[in-house]
Design goal:
By secondary structure, the chain is α/β, with parallel strands linked by helices. It has a single domain, classed as TIM Barrel (Alpha-Beta Barrel), CATH 3.20.20. Helix content is 37%, strand content 11%. Strands 9-6-3-2-1-12-11-10 form an 8-stranded parallel sheet. It has a 4-stranded antiparallel sheet with strand order 5-4-7-8, with no helix packed on it. Helix 6 crosses helix 8. The longest helix has 27 residues. The protein is globular.
Length: 491
């Protein structure tokens, strides 16, 4: 990444305080940027901002790789104040440390139903907006998915493939729903670009996140069926997941669609170039989740356990050479955790793309090991205390083996910065590393425990719900973080 030695914090906008039960693009987003600026922290890492489903509410499984989540649009910043003060007051929710997605989505949907009566879809700004082909196609899918239940491959045959005539029909037949979706996506884009501009003007860069895979029931698959591994009736025969490892002995089943990489190659990886290009307009840098999937990936027969999966080869031999001609790789970060492959290391080195190291995974649990002290890590690395998938540091310190605590204490003893809190000693080890980017979570800055964990891989309930009740709790910590940034040359 074309960035000087710096630091970053992970916080999804849903975790911010707000009046409506979920963090959004309102005033607290700007306050959080102010806090980053005050602490000399130069990177805000957000998780994917796409539409979630109504079951797991995961930002990593979306109906679209380019559309935004309408439920994190700020209701207080909508164009022309389309909702009255009384309407907004009716859905206000007292701040808490959890997001009740079902309630929040229901409240906002009741408001959004009124948009078609209050928005003129023929206004020039909306007409111009829908001229973008990708937007137009993805919003067509979104509209159909709201009108018809079930996956797209169960819809009437005439709706299973996109065409201009289908767009005309959907636009005419479901104008109210289409109007709502165009308006909310237009507002999402404008509000997010305003936040990004404010961040950049305050010397804060935005690190976005894009999953390597997409939901089967998504605009991406619907529009590009030939690019995905689909079987009879356009169902998935195999699904994505992770091989069993020390952390998940049964492996993981992600249930997202696998690619037909040979077909991508024939088209010059056009789908990926468009997707990366579009997302890089929204972020200064972009983290690609499960980067090793470009090299080899675990294919699991549908409805079977991860243990029954098998390895398949990815497109790495041609993918990076082709895509690098159209995409600025200086803006990419690779989540290369998990399976260690020499090919991955070679590609990251050749294209100068940073990989990741997570300290929780790099503290040995055996006296015989090949780990090195964080002070010996390379510069071209994004170093993390943990990620959104990890335990909090406080939880990790309570649950790990004695031998890992011994190694942690050895690492800590060589640190030039010592705190009374071992959570902050853990953070400091990452900040003192030579890596160009050091990252932790808000939960860890606050020394929170298991109750604040954001996501537990392989589970489907009670994830993505943690939330800050008040940004003021970060005020004192901001000063401590500023000192840490300055003392480790990350300010």
């Amino acid at each position: 990444m074309n960035i000087n030695k710096s630091s970053g914090l992970i916080l999804h906008p849903t975790s911010l305080p707000s009046d409506y039960g979920i963090g959004d693009f309102g005033k607290e987003s700007y306050r959080f940027i102010d806090l980053l600026c005050e602490s000399k922290t130069q990177v805000w890492q957000v998780l994917p901002l796409g539409i979630t489903d109504n079951i797991e509410y995961s930002p990593y499984s979306s109906k679209s790789s380019i559309l935004g989540n309408p439920y994190i649009v700020s209701l207080n910043k909508l164009k022309n104040n389309v909702f009255t003060g009384d309407e907004l007051s009716e859905i206000k929710i007292n701040n808490s440390d959890k997001v009740d997605y079902k309630l929040v989505y229901s409240n906002k949907n009741n408001l959004y139903k009124k948009l078609s009566e209050r928005v003129n879809i023929n206004d020039q700004e909306y007409r111009d907006y829908i001229e973008n082909d990708l937007k137009k196609q993805h919003i067509t899918f979104l509209t159909l998915s709201e009108v018809y239940e079930g996956s797209w491959n169960t819809w009437s045959k005439k709706y299973q493939n996109y065409s201009e005539s289908l767009f005309d029909e959907v636009f005419s037949k479901y104008l109210n729903t289409f109007t709502k979706n165009i308006y909310l996506q237009y507002e999402f884009d404008n509000q997010w670009q305003n936040i990004k501009s404010y961040a950049n003007s305050n010397n804060v860069k935005i690190l976005g996140d894009i999953p390597i895979y997409v939901n089967h029931n998504s605009a991406d698959v619907w529009l590009n069926q030939h690019l995905f591994d689909l079987g009879d009736n356009n169902e998935m025969s195999f699904v994505s997941g992770a091989v069993p490892d020390d952390f998940t002995v049964e492996g993981q089943v992600w249930n997202t669609a696998l690619y037909k990489w040979d077909n991508h190659k024939e088209e010059g990886y056009k789908y990926w170039i468009e997707k990366l290009d579009y997302n890089l307009k929204n972020y200064d840098y972009l983290r690609i989740d499960h980067f090793v999937g470009f090299f080899q990936f675990w294919a699991i027969p549908k409805n079977e356990p991860a243990l029954n999966g098998h390895w398949r080869s990815g497109p790495w031999k041609t993918f990076f050479d082709v895509v690098s001609k159209s995409i600025d790789f200086n803006k990419l970060l690779a989540e290369d955790l998990g399976v260690v492959l020499q090919e991955t290391a070679d590609v990251l080195s050749n294209f100068n793309i940073p990989g990741m190291k997570v300290l929780q995974q790099r503290i040995p649990n055996d006296s015989k090991h090949n780990e090195i002290h964080p002070k010996e890590w390379d510069f071209n690395i994004a170093a993390y205390t943990g990620t959104h998938d990890s335990p909090t540091i406080k939880q990790w310190l309570k649950e790990v083996d004695d031998i890992q605590i011994q190694f942690f204490n050895q690492y800590k003893a060589s640190s030039s910065l010592l705190y009374e809190s071992d959570v902050w000693n853990f953070i400091s080890l990452v900040w003192e590393s030579p890596c160009q980017l050091a990252v932790t979570t808000i939960q860890d800055l606050l020394e929170l425990g298991k109750e604040a964990r954001f996501n537990i891989p392989g589970t489907t309930e009670n994830n993505w719900v943690w939330r800050l009740e008040d940004l003021n709790v970060l005020k004192n910590i901001t000063k401590d973080l500023e000192k840490l940034n300055k003392s480790t040359d990350r300010a």
